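Signal peptidase I: structure tokens wanted.
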Amino acid sequence: MAKEKSGDGIGETIKTVVYALLIAGVFRTLFFQPFWIPSGSMKDTLLVGDFLFVNKMAYGYSKYSCPFSLCPIEDRILARDPKRGDVVVFRHPSNNSDFIKRLVGLPGDTIQVKEGVLHINGEAVKLEEQAPFEEIKERQGPIGNMPQCSNRPVGEGGTCIKQRFTETFPDGKSHSILNIGTRLYADDTEVFNVPEGHYFFMGDNRDNSQDSRFSLLSGGVGYLPEEYLIGRADRIMFSSAGRSLFFFWTWRPDRFFKAVE
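Answer:
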């Protein structure tokens, strides 16, 4: 009898775990996906170690909405168009990893960067200089990347500085961008004509981002087809500057529950 009760207990535990995993899988697929910021390409909007939930209801669903791209969906369902300025998580068409960048070009737009200034449909966006962005030059996050500095050379432990601007799109939406220096092929580009059904993305840390300015063959994103959209980043839930989230002394309480702008 004792053995039978023990077996029943194990069976109930297994069922509970299976149900919990199924509920978590459905929640992750349909509503919100957790996302850690691994690199500095979106500074200072998003910092290495920020943790957020991606709103997967924002743009509808495709096969890339499921883990491992397993959703049996041919075309996007409940599709909604993203807006210029959204911070978007999408599946990279070549390496199958998830990227996060800012949407700057909509279908039919022309996009060009001239002398480091973004031009949308032939018009330069408005830039307003802010106080410089400063951080300690040290290894950041689990990957341990070093930040790039405009005041280089900077030794480890020194103050790393980047120029910071407020960039305002034609519709009036503003956000912060960083500048490190002149970057070949990124600060002066060709004119990009965004095809129908595609989008153009850039990182806010403009000189440290592999984005739509670069083709898939060169490690960039190129024009992103709409089916690769996963969701919109709306709010930072937690943030840690250390190599592990368990290093509580590296937590950034001022970034907890901060809106993504």
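The first strand starts at residue 32 and ends at 36. The CA atoms of residues 139 and 146 lie 5 Å apart.

Cheers.
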